[in-house]
Each structure stands twice: as C-alpha cells, then as structure tokens.
Amino acid sequence: MKLSALKIAPIIALSLLLGGCAGMPGMSGGDETKDGAPVTEGGQDSMANGAQTSGAMEGGAWSGSPLENPDSLLYTKTIYFDYDIDEVRADYRDVVTAHGDYLAANPSITVTVEGHADERGSREYNIALGERRANSIKRLLMAQGAAESQIITISYGEERPATMGSGETSWELNRRAEFVY
Q1: I want to staple 146 with a disulfide (CB 3.0 to 4.6 A). Which of 85, 98, 103, 110 is the partner?
Q2: What is the pTM of this model?
C-alpha cells in the first residue's frame, strides 16, 4: 500500500510533537530533577508563595474587589429598562443603591453610566432615551451619597446593541444602562 505525502505528514507531525514532549521537565521520560513551579498539596496554604488564584479565601470570604465578587450586588453592572421607559425598574433599585453606596464610600472612584436603547425609534430619539436612562441612574447614585463629579453619563442610543436581531428577546437586552468602572 502506497501512502501519499498528505496522509503521512500529520502522522510525522504528531510523532514529532509527542517526541518533543519527552524531554520536557515534568513530562514522562523527561529530566525530573530540574526545578519547576512549586506545587502545594490540597489543604496547604497556597498564599505562602505569594500566588492567589481568586478572590475567595479559605473559609469562603471574598478578598478581591467588591466589584468582582459574584455574591455582591456590585457584580451586576447592567440595568435593564422597560420599553420606552427611563425609570429604573424595581428589581434593579437595590443594585443601583449598592453602586451609589460604593461610590459614596470611595470618593476617588469614578464610573461611567452608558445609556442604550433598542433599534425602534429614530436615531435622535434613541440617543435622548439612552441619555435619560443614564441620568435616571445618576440621580439614584447621587441620592445614595455619590458625588456628581464621580459619575459620567453617555448615551449610545441604538448604536451599540448588546445583541443583534429584531424581536422582543433582542430588544429586551438592548434596553439597558451599563456601569463601566
């Protein structure tokens, strides 16, 4: 049976790849005496070497930025709106309140609130609606003690959709404001 170069090339490449791994530290058949990255056994303090892989510490306490804690209201950075409405929905008021409290407690931090709209309506109308949405959130943040100088608002209207498509599912995702820290 005669093998063509096209059939044999992948076999040769695979054998070279596997053969090249044999001489690498930590791989089977390699030089096991070379120093590699330290490995700790489960249950040992992984912070001893100065490495941290997440914000979760032993015992489940979060040690990273509160903005990145999945269990915090601050983790939610997108606020959705009803059709043609700029008032923050009741199910998002706690999230906006938490962001306002965070800004009030951290006066050196600024946030940009980006207002968006779905594709229905004229470009000008959607820019204005996005601006009203961003300003509605800004007012709630300031009511929690955030300074006006900490909050930048911008409207993209329909120009930066979260998802493409026409229909209620797409429109719901595009009617939003986003916190950008």
Answers
A1: 103
A2: 0.68
